[in-house]
Write a structure and sequence with these properties.
The complex is a heterodimer of chains A (about 550) and B (about 350). Chain A is mainly beta and about 550 residues long. In chain A, a hairpin with an 8-residue loop joins β29 and β30. Chain A starts with 9 loop residues before the first helix and ends with a strand. Chain A has 4 helices and 35 strands. Chain B is mainly beta and about 350 residues long. Chain B contains 3 helices and 21 strands. Chain B is globular. The chains are: A mainly beta (about 550), B mainly beta (about 350).
């Protein structure tokens, strides 16, 4: 084993990856890392032994990647009992059918360190990420059976989407039934939507294609090379083809959890090996999953997707949305054992794409896509001050735990920056020691705040908000802004002062308007740093 | 202005990357297997509304002595078989590598009679596809040409390969890797990747299970092994001299730790990650999932392409799933495909 510390060609690779990053991909594809990755088809049905393993990784070898993911639950419900999830009629009570549409979205965040991969089973999620501060937890599929879509978006430390094309993913569809001695696996790559470098993608409205594109456009059409359903497998002569297609809309309203319609219908043109063309169409919302020969008729051997109608084993299907609205898809090719239809060997694959949608597709994120609080690492671009002071005492002896942070001669700060903490502006003090995770003191908006001249003050004798009992905020049009925060008692989150703190210690006061004030204490600023006490002062002439 | 146009042209060339999803002028199937237990179905389609021609080459990467490890004393056979395919507008075609496809032999089409769902070979005759004998383990490349056989930047080909176990019927599928043809293709017998066609990737990256780790979502007594098939981008069909590439690996575990390895690939190599190097094992990586970056060494004269195949096992049961690896960046021009 040769674990690397300074591997000789690492620098070459880093340079190469950076260079590669400039060669931005020009189309939505599963072949390259991207800023958005979409898994169009995830499924689990534990009683039948179906589950999906998901892999996600950051390909950036120098920087971490913050990621916000949305797990869309598109599992249908039974018509008479919509709360009962189902994948087919057998999952519903006798006489009931599996049809009622559902859509629920669960959101989670991740912090992937450089070139870090993670994996998790859809059925269990991931309660604890491998690296502390890695975000999560990743929720399991909320219902069983389950069918859904996963969309993951690269964001900055504030949760705003960014143009870094560093994410890749894979899904492995698994089927294991010990009693029936069945093991099957099928894998596909997540579809990547590359951000256009430099595009302003920092809001919650992600524009794919079109004149104001922030991300690459969705394809104008999809093409699927497939075996026509019911055709006999030419290798074993013992199974018949049955291909399942999973389509999702490129656009998604993840803020209102409203299914996106393609606006019109999805049209299918099936070509056989005789240059003959067949066609059908069907509308859908958000996600559509169907065996090909179920798309057009209820009797598979009458379908244009069947070998009996098309006449050949091989087929090619062109999929378009004539009314607009981009779509993407994956296919799962099944080989159904002719002697036991429960035995299906499957292989998943990404479909081909051609052209670009003329009109944009939009993914709308929730307004507050990331819960307010400290980011996993210090924010960039915070306001600084001419003088800073930090004192933390975790001694139990009197006067007990205390924390004081003062920020003086601060950069110009407006009342808009301060927001209105009496009504709706939340505050948090974030303390980072070395490369460690943030320790957060949360001060939500409340009536403990009061307006004062050019600012606000906070007074809570009970120290209910993480020990904080006093805050003074002073705006200024010159470099004389001021902030002071005091906390006391056991309610203060522990900084882990059992040992000296790692430096630099970075303190950031952030609020939910996006404002941030920062003090940085390097080793030369430290006055005391020992068990139970940390004190530092930093000032600039 | 001329300079600007030239720069723009260069940039345009530099941006063109290989891919598996968009129609291309060269499609590469890195892993074709016809051995005692597995066979391969090839699908090739014409996306144009006009007839498309392609010339295809099989290359056998099986070792001269399969019982021995690869090395200078045990080189790959590197024998080739070539054929021409003609596809009418939008036509898909399919063949089993061990069966080939006969020319000018009419095959009855499938009908709705279930006894006639086996219509292998039905469809417009794309030309004779040779039979690959047992023991073929190698690659297939198809190059779009004009009617007289000159390479062409038409970008009308897509393809898939399905690897199938003859006994269990287990299947794994990947998409052919496509090199888009660019403007300025002179149609001669030296195909310049990065100039006339999309460039070979600078590196490849894929996520995989650590060798021997339990499959995510399956029982703890399951295990996963990943087989990686690597081929050089460059190939010279006019001589029987295989291209040799030194491939370097950087494997990252879930704790941001990095491990390295390197192997020599002569024309075609398919091996489990554990066979390539022990750093890919669960004991070495320490986490169940890894991300591996691979690339040809700076001293190598060719870039590389690859596909991965993951095999899950529980007791006597086994299942495979193939996947296309991701690509990063584009190599500078210099990779060549030379045709007779």
């Amino acid at each position: 084993m040769r674990q690397l510390t300074r591997f000789a060609w690492m620098l070459t690779v880093l340079g190469m990856v950076v260079a590669g990053g400039r060669n931005a991909p020009a189309a939505i594809t599963s072949d390259r890392p991207a800023a958005i990755v979409i898994f169009p088809y995830l499924t689990r049905h534990l009683s039948q032994g179906f589950d999906t393993a998901i892999r996600l990784s950051n390909t950036d070898r120098t920087a971490a990647a913050d990621v916000t993911c949305f797990l869309e639950d598109t599992t249908p419900g039974c018509l008479l009992d919509p709360a009962q999830p189902c994948l087919d009629d057998a999952d519903c009570a006798s006489g009931d059918t599996c049809k009622a549409p559902r859509l629920e979205v669960a959101q989670f965040t991740l912090h992937l360190s450089p070139h870090q991969p993670i994996s998790w089973p859809l059925s269990a999620g991931l309660a604890t990420l491998p690296v502390p501060g890695g975000g999560g937890p990743i929720p399991p599929a909320p219902v069983d059976p389950f069918r859904g879509v996963l969309r993951c978006i690269v964001v900055d430390a504030n949760g705003a989407p960014t143009d870094r094309n560093v994410l890749q993913g894979e899904a492995v569809l698994e089927h294991y039934d010990a009693a029936a001695a069945i093991l099957d696996a099928a894998a596909y790559n997540a579809i990547g939507v590359a951000a256009r470098p430099g595009a302003g993608v920092d809001d919650g409205r992600l524009v794919l294609g079109g004149p104001d594109a922030e991300y690459e456009a969705c394809p104008a059409q999809l093409t699927l090379n497939h075996f026509l359903d019911l055709g006999i497998d030419p290798v074993t002569q013992a199974s018949a083809s049955r291909t399942q297609l999973a389509i999702v809309t490129c656009g998604a309203d993840l803020s209102s959890q409203t299914p996106i319609s393609t606006g019109n219908v999805v049209q299918y043109f099936v070509f056989n090996e005789f240059e003959q063309r067949f066609s059908t169409s069907r509308s859908f919302e958000d996600q559509f999953v169907s065996v090909l020969s179920d798309i057009d008729v209820p009797i598979p051997d009458r379908s244009i997707f069947s070998a009996g109608i098309a006449g050949t084993l091989g087929g090619r299907t062109v999929i378009t949305t004539p009314g607009g609205g981009g779509i993407m898809a994956v296919a799962v090719e099944g080989h159904v054992d002719l002697s036991d239809s429960a035995r299906v060997s499957t292989a998943a694959f990404n479909v081909h794409t051609e052209g670009e949608q003329a009109e944009p597709d939009v993914m709308t994120l929730p307004t507050q896509s990331v819960p307010f609080g400290c980011s996993a690492r210090p924010l960039d671009g915070c306001k600084t001050a001419g003088a800073n002071r930090l004192m933390i005492s975790e001694r139990r002896s009197r006067p007990g735990k205390r924390l004081v942070w003062e920020w003086r001669k601060g950069e110009a700060t407006t009342m808009t920056d301060l927001g209105d903490p009496r009504r709706d502006t939340d505050y948090a003090l974030c303390i980072y020691a070395g490369a460690g995770a943030a320790v957060q003191l949360s001060i939500p908006a409340s009536n403990a705040w009061a307006a004062v001249r050019r600012g606000f003050k906070y007074a809570d004798p009970a120290s209910t908000a993480d020990g904080v009992f006093r805050i003074a905020l002073q705006a200024s049009t010159r470099a004389t802004a001021h902030a002071l925060l005091r906390a006391r008692g056991d309610g203060i989150p522990s900084m882990g002062l059992d040992a000296p703190l790692a430096t630099p210690v970075v303190v950031q006061l952030v609020n939910s308007t996006g404002s941030c004030s920062e003090g940085v204490f390097d080793s030369q600023h430290v006055l005391r740093n020992k068990q139970g006490v940390f004190e530092a002062r930093a000032s600039t002439p | 202005m001329i300079v600007a146009a030239g720069v723009a042209g260069l940039l345009g060339t530099a941006r063109a990357q290989v891919g598996s999803e968009q129609p291309a002028s060269i499609v590469v199937f890195p892993k074709i297997v016809v051995d005692g237990t597995r066979d391969t179905i090839v699908q090739l389609s014409n996306t144009a509304n006009a007839t498309t021609y392609a010339h295809c080459w099989y290359r056998n990467g099986a070792l001269a002595n399969p019982a021995l490890p690869p090395g200078p004393a045990n080189p790959p056979l590197w024998t080739s078989a070539d054929f021409t395919v003609v596809l009418t507008k939008q036509q898909p075609t399919t063949w089993v590598v061990s069966r080939g496809r006969m020319a000018d032999v009419p095959v009855e089409r499938c009908t709705r009679d279930p006894s006639n769902y086996d219509c292998y070979g039905a469809g417009f005759d794309p030309g004779r596809v040779p039979v690959m004998a047992e023991g073929f383990t190698g690659e297939l490349r198809c190059i779009e040409t004009d009617a007289i056989g000159a390479p062409l930047s038409g970008n009308h080909l897509t393809g898939e390969a399905t690897l199938e176990d003859r006994v269990t019927g287990d299947v794994a599928k990947y998409s052919a890797i496509g090199f888009a043809g660019l403007e300025g293709n002179d149609g001669d017998d030296v195909l310049r990747l990065g100039e006339e066609y999309a460039g070979c990737p600078q590196s490849l990256v894929f996520d995989h299970a650590a060798e021997g780790a339990a499959a995510v979502g399956l029982d703890a007594d399951s295990s996963v092994a990943t087989e990686l098939t690597i081929i050089p981008c460059s190939v010279d069909y006019t001589v029987q001299v295989p291209e040799t590439v030194i491939v370097q690996f950087l494997a990252s575990n879930e704790f941001e730790q990095v491990f390295s390895a390197s192997v020599v690939v002569t024309c075609w190599r398919s091996a489990s990650l554990h066979e390539l190097d022990t750093v890919f094992g669960l004991d070495a990586l320490g986490t169940p999932t890894a991300q591996t970056l691979l690339r040809a060494s700076a001293a190598s004269s060719s870039g590389i392409l690859a596909v991965a195949e993951e095999q899950q096992r529980i007791g006597d049961l086994a299942a495979r799933a193939a996947i296309n690896v991701h690509s990063l960046g584009v190599r500078d021009a210099g990779d060549l495909i030379t045709v007779p």
